[in-house]
Amino acid sequence: PAASPHDLPSPSAASTGLPIACAAMYVVKRDGQHQEVKFDNITQRIRVLCDGLDSKYVDPVPITQRVVEGLYNGISTSELDTLAAETCAYMSQRHPDFSTLAARIAV
């Protein structure tokens, strides 16, 4: 028998190409307060640290996208920095400026 529309899985974010809508995630700041994770805040922090690096290779937005993939609710800001630094270190295969950025994030 043919499947009814109720038997079919609903379109997922992966099948539509749209980002997955999920509950807000929070980061734990150094003072212990919880703050909602904001893509733009992470991007801006990375953008500031990219000063003087080759922008043809080192773009804050794709870096932030990779970092966000590894986030989980309740991550601390220091763990977030470590994740960002490790992400950049891994990307240093593409261009040496990623190593510089990784070091800047880690400090």
TrEMBL record:
UniProt domain ATP-cone: residue ranges: 25-107
InterPro entries recorded: ATP-cone_dom, RNR_R1-su_N, Rrm1
Any one GO molecular-function label of the UniProt entry: ribonucleoside-diphosphate reductase activity, thioredoxin disulfide as acceptor
One GO cellular component, as annotated: ribonucleoside-diphosphate reductase complex
Single GO biological process annotation from the record: deoxyribonucleotide biosynthetic process
Alphabetized UniProt keyword annotations: ATP-binding, Nucleotide-binding
Pfam families named in the record: ATP-cone
Record's protein name: ATP-cone domain-containing protein
Taxonomic lineage from the root: Eukaryota, Sar, Alveolata, Ciliophora, Intramacronucleata
